Amino acid sequence: MPKKRNSWSGFRYKEDRWPVFLVLTLTVIDFILYFTVNNIVILSGYYLLMLLPKGVICAWNHHHQHLFTFRQTALNRGLEFVYALHTGVTTHLWRLHHVLGHHLNFLDQEQDESRWKRKDGTRMGVIEYTLNVALTAYTRGYQVGKKHPKQLTPFLIYTAITFTIVAMLVWYNPVAGLMLFVLPMITSLLFTAYVTYEHHSGLDTQNEFEASFNNLDPLFNRLTGNLGYHTAHHHKQGVHWSKLPALHETIADKIPARLYQKSIFTRMILGG
After folding, report:
1. Alpha helices, DSSP H only, in 69-217?
2. Average pLDDT of the chain to the nearest whole number
3. Which UniProt keywords apply (predicted)?
4. pLDDT at position 1
5. Which of left, alpha, beta for 205 (phi over 0: left; psi -120 to 50: alpha)?
6. DSSP state for residue 30 in the 8-state scheme
7. What end-to-end distance do the CA atoms of the chain give, in Å?
C-alpha cells in the first residue's frame, strides 16, 4: 500500500517543514521589529541585510505556487500572505503568470509571460528584462486569469486583502511599514525577475531539453529548493522540488553540456 505523507501535520511533503519554519521565523522577526523599532538607521541596515535572504524566499514561494505546501486551503492562504510580505507576490499571482502562463508558453517568445525577446525579435538586456517582467507581473497575471476565472478570483481577493493590510501597517507605523514590508516587496519582485533572466534568455528553440540553463551547484540548490534543475522543472512542473534531482537524472542525457552554468545568484553568494 502507498505510504501516507504526514497527514497529521498538514504538510504534503515533510521536506517543506524547515523552509516554512525559517520563513515564519523571519516573519516573526519582522513584526517584532515593526512594533519595537522606529529608528530608520537600524531598519535600513536590517532591510539591506535581508535583501538576499528575502530574495531566496522568492524561490520557495515559486515552489508553493506550483504545488501547494499544505493540504488545508486556509493554511495555504495564510502562508501565501506571509510569502507576499517578503516577495511582493500575492496569492495565485505566480500560479497565473508562471504556472498557467510562462510554463505553457516559454518556447514561444510572442506569448511567454516572462519573455526575453523584444517585439522586433532581438534579445533584451538583463535590466530591461528585469523591469519589463517585474512591472508587468500583475497585469500579465490578470490577463492569464481571465482565461482561468477559478484561479483569478482568489488572486483578486487575496491581493486586495494583502495590500490593504500592508497599507494599514504603513499608516500605523510609516517608517517601519515602509522599511520592513513595502520596500522588501518591491525589491524582491525585482530580484525575482532579475535572476530569472538567465533561465531561458538567448535559448531560441522548440526543444524543451535545450530551452533552459541549469545550475547544479549544491549550495545554490539547497538555498533555492533545487531550482537549478530547471530543465527537469519545465519537463514536469508538477514534481515536488525535492524530487527534481532524481528527475534530472532521467533526462540528463538530453541536455547539452553548454546549458550547465553558474547562475547570477550563485556568483553573488559564492563569487567566480
Report:
1. 73-87, 93-94, 103-105, 126-145, 149-172, 174-177, 183-200
2. 93
3. Membrane, Transmembrane, Transmembrane helix
4. 38
5. beta
6. H
7. 48
pLDDT greater than 70 at residue 106: yes
Look up the pTM and report it.
0.92
Give the whole-angstrom CA distance, residue 111 versus residue 7.
39
The alpha-carbon radius of gyration of the chain (Å, integer) is: 19
Count of CB atoms within 10 A of residue 7's CB?
9
Domain boundaries, the chain: 16-204
Contact 213, 230 (CB under 8 A): yes
CA distances from 140 to 12, 58, 146, 183, 224 (A): 29, 18, 10, 22, 25
**In Å, how far from its chain's centre is CA 144?**
17
Burial label for 38, CB within 10 Å (0-12, 13-18, 19+), is middle
Q: How far apart are CA 145 and CA 153, in angstroms?
A: 8
Q: What is the pLDDT of residues 174-227, one digit of tens each?
A: 999 999 999 999 999 999 999 999 999 999 999 999 999 999 999 999 999 999
Within 8 A by CB and 6+ apart from 165, the residues are 81
Angle, in degrees to the nearest 10, between helices 183-200 and 126-145? 100
What is the C-alpha separation between 231 and 227, in angstroms, rounded? 9
